[in-house]
Amino acid sequence: MTRKDFLTVGASALAPPRLPAGIQAARTSAQPKNVLFLLSDQHRPRTMGCAGDAVAHTPNLDTLARSGIRFDSAYCTNPVCTPSRASILTGLYTHNHRAWANSTPWPIEHRTMAHHFSRAGYVTGLIGKMHFVDAQTHGFDYRMDFNDWFQYLGPKVGLYAEELNRPNSGAGMPQIDDLWRDFGDPWTGTRAPDGRKALVHVGRVSKIPERDHFESFVARESVRFLKNFGRKNPFLLISSFLKPHDPYMPAQRFADRYPASAMRLPATNGKVDLSTVPKEIRDRILTPTATPELAAPELGKQRMAMYYANLAQMDDCIGQVLAALRELDMEKDTVVLYSSDHGEMLGEHGLWQKFVFYDPSVGVPLLFRVPGVTAPGARCATPASLVQLVSTLLELCGIPVPSGLDGDSLVPCLREPQKTLDRTVYAEHNLHNAKLARFMIRRGDFKYSHYTDDMPELYDLRRDPEEMKNLALLPAHKDKAAEMKEEIFRWYKPPARA
Predict the structure, then answer these.
(1) Which helix (H) or strand (E) holds 253?
(2) What is the 3-state secondary structure (H, E, C) of 47-116?
């Protein structure tokens, strides 16, 4: 819907549609299934003990995986926070929901999973980060976020301002960019320099007491929500943690677990043939702009150590929420899922952060536990996308799935994970910028990435899981590259450039 269409249709378009006759009665005749959606930020898809990472300390995620299903190949729709999260909640790809970047407010006309669950009689809660960019609540009855945490911190907010060192909406300060646009950054001149060369610190121990970390706050308030609302009403609760996203500044006891000297840089670090990758990738490898210090191997190891420590701290807080669900005797009636908005390269290919289409960046962990549906310890090889979560959760809870969603349901995979379905997965980035637009398709064993005015990439993920041999440059794979380009252009055709 364009803005013109939206204004023409008027406010009546925003009214939630009536449920079909009998739906509400059916929902109240038996105990509805609750939904607990545990979400993190920047979690690499295979950086969990249950996925074979011997360094990662994730006992609570591992336990969740053993009691349910783990998807081996799950992807976000866009490897950056706001666009990905908008896809998670709306079931639409970025070019349809149009929250293009971290500075773009979500268009108000799009319904989220909160709207759908609310009209089915659920209490809906969002506790933690969602990167809405503005003050819209997007259908949630109950919402707590960074600004509530800052209220809780009181004068200790200064410690967090020191950790960020400069405005960083991805880490919640300011949570809404417009708040600081008129009069500038209110912390200017108050932060002590800490030696970083650019936006993001390499990583160190946090000066904030562990109980005051954002993750501890989200866990406590999630437990409070369960106690106050979970016994009385069916609920949808999204508990959304910032970690392992930067600042890579964990509490002391988690940092102690990971000395930098114990880290090993990835095998692909420093091994990429720069002549076989797009210019943007070359530039990111040669110049890690957000953290230039990472060009030094020892500082790269420090960053890895603090990332793993951040992850361990986040897992510990997830354990607190899951323990409360169990102690309140809600497990048998609650769908639990865990995922992240995107991954983190963490030195793979010599790259850091996200923004690219290699699996550590665009891939995400995806775990489900559905009472009566999922088999304990199952794994599913069918590629999955976070754009499918809205339709999946609605179907699991017996709520009508609206038309027009981009993602179909994963319920067939949850019921029969051993069947590998022929599914195609897409991702995109910067499609609103004709010069920088790029997008990706994963079908079967192959992944193809199209970069505007640059070389394409084609990888065979079965033979080359580290994505080091760009087959798009080889004559023997010319037809496969052309086939996948044609398919991805059927999904989204870039507009003609002036």
Answers:
(1) helix 252-255
(2) CCHHHCCCCCCCHHHHHHHHCCEEECCEECCCCCHHHHHHHHHHCCCHHHHCCCCCCCCCCCCCCCHHHH
Report pLDDT for 491.
94
274's tokens: 């720069």
Q: Return the CATH number of 30-420, one of 3.90.550.10, 3.40.720.10, 2.120.10.80, 3.40.50.720.
A: 3.40.720.10
How confident is the model at residue 3, as a pLDDT? 33
Long-range CB contacts for residues 286-292, cutoff 8 Å, separation at least 24: 288/351, 288/352, 289/198, 290/198, 290/199, 290/200, 290/352, 290/353, 291/196, 291/197, 291/198, 291/199, 291/200, 291/201, 291/202, 291/352, 292/197, 292/198
Collect the ranges in the chain with pLDDT lower than 50. 1-29
Q: CB within 8 A of 489, min separation 6: which ones?
A: 450
The span from the CA of 85 to the CA of 97, in Å, is 11
Q: What is the pLDDT of residue 264?
A: 98
Q: At what angle do helices 297-327 and 59-66 cross, to 10 degrees?
A: 50
357/276 Cα distance (integer angstroms)? 15
The pLDDT tens digits for 376-388 are 999 999 999 999 9
Closest C-alpha to 272, from 202, 347, 346, 344? 347
User: Quick one: CATH architecture of 430-498?
Assistant: 2-Layer Sandwich (3.30)
Nearest to residue 41, comparing CAs of 353, 407, 356?
Answer: 353
| pLDDT value for 433 | 83
pLDDT digits (tens, 9 = 90+) for 195-214: 999 999 999 999 999 999 99
What number of CA atoms fall less than 13 Å from residue 149's CA on the CB side? Answer: 31
Q: Hey, where are the domains in the chain? A: 30-420, 430-498
Tell me, yes or no, if the two domains 30-420 and 430-498 fold the same way: no
